[in-house]
Design brief:
Elements (H helix, E strand, L loop, with lengths): L5 H4 L12 H12 L6 E5 L6 H13 L13 H7 L6 E5 L6 H10 L10 E6 L6 H12 L5 E7 L7 H4 L3 E4 L5 H14 L6 H11 L3 H12 L8 H8 L4 H12 L3 H13 L4 H21 L10 H10 L5 H18 L5 H13 L7 H9 L7 H4 L49 H26 L1 H8 L1 E6 L3 E6 L2 H7 L2 H15 L4 E4 L13 H18 L1 H10 L14
Parallel strand pairs: 1-4, 1-5, 2-3, 3-4, 7-8
Antiparallel strand pairs: 6-7
Length: 576
């Protein structure tokens, strides 16, 4: 008898032997026991997870004449014929080579005949997504209302290519990737029963390389066994298949986390000399870094069980080498390297430079940790005691920009002196008119009164008039006169309208006093030195806040400790 490869010889013959798909086998078994089996099934999932195997199992179970419960007996004539691929009632069709309308028409014609010696005529269509659009359309009617003796079982690896009209006519089962634990357990069992002499560390490496596919895992095991080597351990498997083993991956990750650039370059050269696949090596490095990051952020208990005990122990040992922020930065950089590897003409160089880059990253600390350390110092009082806004990372604290005047607006007779005129000094100790502080006080007072008026306009007249006036420059504001200058020609034309201008004057007199007169200047009018607008008022406040942030003791202490400089100051309530 011809030799059968492991993937065929160890193909499950019962639902209980199927590895890693309990949600599928349990549901199908329950349907078989209750005789509530649908007429059309669609199995989807990646390669090598058991779609075709379960389809054949279901076909045998449906036609088994001696079945008790869900499992086929594998002894009766329908079962033995199906196992020998000799059943005329179980038809396997390759969707890739039988994808035309004529092929589907042949199925439709044959489905009218009853099965030869079984209960059902079962059609298993593999890679069904490769059927043409016309073939799918031809199949729809039969798929929705087949004869009582016909059952369809379809399998695909690309569910996104399936028409919605087909999906709605089938019971869909999604096959999952097989976990590392299940793969290792099954391969270890195969190696023990067949006396293959493959070590457990080698089996773990093969299972990791299979990426959730049982067929891939069995094929890799078959390839290793075919080498005839007496000692088949992880080191041999790594060299034989050209994939990086756990020790190599761990050494690279450790070199990165220790910022040992010389070691990383040496390991990259060693992996290149051994012929390791660069994409595979980077993938394994990122996989271990993922476990290390999880262990550092959420504890080693959060590392997935499928990672294996060796990788969990490595993650626990390396978790405290870098901060979680550093680990995230390293991972993001490696993601970019992985993207650059695809299609590169020199993948070894791209990998080496990528690993060297992450090993060269300067350690960084969280801003919260730095501030906590700064606040803990005896020389730096807490922000509340300083009387100044708190800042972090040279960023101004969150503060709401004022858009309205103080709760009580000054009465007309108490109004601030007009713009462009000397400021009367009645309070003792005030500076003389024309000094910088006096001018700033006058501007601030007029600015608050103007913003209070704008807030009143928004409440009483709506957003349109409010926007119009915020785009005006104020040249004079006193108890008798308000002079404004629109900043755009469109706003000037609107204010030249008699009705709108009268509305503005009424609102201004209601707010500032009945004697107020309104003057609207043209765009070419000369600008008064101490005129202002909402934009200049906000710019002045931002400048003041920035100055406070730069003079904040915490910021100065951080600059001294980090030997840095302030590049930019951003208000937290205005940052992106």
């Amino acid at each position: 008898m011809a030799y059968q490869v492991l993937a065929r010889r160890w193909r499950p013959r019962t639902f209980a032997e199927v590895v890693g798909q309990p949600h599928v086998t349990r549901t199908l078994g329950s349907a078989l026991e209750r005789d509530r089996v649908g007429h059309a099934f669609l199995f989807t999932g990646v390669r090598g997870v058991g779609k075709t195997t379960v389809a054949r199992l279901l076909a045998r179970a449906l036609n088994c004449s001696e079945r008790k419960g869900a499992e086929p007996c594998n002894q009766c004539p329908p079962c033995t014929q199906a196992l020998a691929d000799a059943s005329v009632d179980v038809l396997e069709i390759d969707g890739a080579s039988n994808n035309s309308v004529d092929d589907v028409r042949a199925i439709i014609e044959a489905s009218a005949y009853r099965p030869a010696g079984s209960r059902y005529r079962v059609y298993i269509i593999d890679e069904v997504h490769q059927l043409s659009k016309g073939a799918f359309n031809a199949l729809l009617k039969l798929l929705e209302e087949p004869p009582d003796h016909v059952r369809f079982i379809m399998a695909t690896t690309e569910i996104q290519k399936m028409p919605a009209t087909v999906l709605s006519r089938c019971q869909r089962f999604d096959f999952r990737r097989i976990s590392m634990t299940d793969l290792v357990g099954h391969l270890a069992h195969v190696a023990e029963v067949d006396k293959l002499g493959v070590g457990l560390d080698a089996i773990e490496l093969l299972s990791r390389e299979a990426d959730g596919s049982m067929r891939d895992a069995q094929s890799l095991l078959e390839q290793v066994v075919a080498s005839g080597e007496e000692k088949m351990d992880a080191a041999f498997v790594s060299d034989f298949l050209g994939i990086a083993g756990r020790d190599s991956v761990a050494a690279v990750v450790e070199g990165i986390l220790d910022a040992d650039c010389a070691r990383v370059v040496e390991l990259a050269a060693l992996c290149r000399d051994r012929g390791y696949d660069t994409s595979n090596l980077l993938l394994r490095v990122m996989e271990l870094l993922r476990y290390v990051t999880i262990a550092a952020s959420a504890g080693v208990e959060a590392v997935p069980r499928g990672a294996g005990d060796d990788y969990r122990q490595l993650a626990e040992r390396l978790a405290d080498r870098r901060s979680t922020l550093d680990l995230h930065r390293v991972f993001q950089c490696l993601l970019k390297t992985a993207s650059q590897l695809r299609g590169s003409e020199s993948p070894e160089l791209v990998l080496e430079m990528g690993l060297l880059q992450v090993a060269s990253l300067e350690p960084v600390a969280m801003a919260a940790e730095l501030l906590e350390g700064l606040r803990g110092g005896a020389e730096i009082p807490p922000p509340a005691a300083q009387g100044k806004p708190q800042s972090s990372k040279a960023t101004a604290p969150k503060a709401t920009t004022r858009k309205a005047a103080s709760p009580k607006d000054p009465a007309p007779e108490e109004a601030a002196p007009p713009l462009g005129t000397p400021v009367a000094q009645e309070a003792a100790g005030q500076e003389a008119p024309g000094t910088e502080s006096a001018a700033a006080a006058a501007e601030g007072s007029h600015g608050e009164r103007w913003e209070g008026f704008l807030a009143s306009v928004q409440n009483k007249a709506g957003i349109d008039l409010y926007v119009l006036l915020t785009n005006c420059e104020v040249l004079q504001l006193d108890a008798h006169k308000l002079t404004i200058k629109p900043q755009l020609s469109g706003y000037l034309r609107r204010l030249e309208e008699k009705e709108l201008r009268g509305r503005v004057l009424d609102l201004a007199r209601e707010h500032f006093g009945a004697e107020l007169e309104l003057e609207v200047l043209g765009l070419n009018s000369s600008r008064v030195a101490d005129s202002f607008s909402v934009k200049t008022l906000e710019a002045g406040r931002d400048s003041e806040t920035e100055a406070q942030a730069r003079e904040d003791p915490l910021v100065k202490a951080a600059q001294e400790i980090l030997q840095g400089r302030i590049e930019k100051v951003t208000r937290l309530d205005q940052s992106d």
